[in-house]
Amino acid sequence: MNHFQAFSQEGMEKMGIIICQDCNATIDYFEDDKVTKLYSCCCECNEKTDEQ
Asked: 10 is in which domain, residue-wise?
């Protein structure tokens, strides 16, 4: 069973993902009408930016 099939069986057919634009880490997943990628900054990268 692949990742998409697992979500479909739980009734969540589409999903979105929030990715850190600096380190490409996955920050969170969310339910959406279509497959979506959003970019943000994770806490660790945000702290590094604040220190500089």
From this structure: 3-51
Q: Count structural domains, the chain.
A: 1
Query: Beta strands 26-31 and 15-20: pairing type?
Result: antiparallel
pLDDT-flagged residues of the chain (< 70)? 1-13, 52
* Residue with the two structure tokens 């979506």: 36
Q: What is the pLDDT of residue 18?
A: 93
- Domain with residue 42: its CATH number is 3.30.1490
Give the CA distances from residue 38 to residues 1, 9, 17, 25, in Å, rounded to whole numbers and listed in that order.
Answer: 26, 24, 6, 12
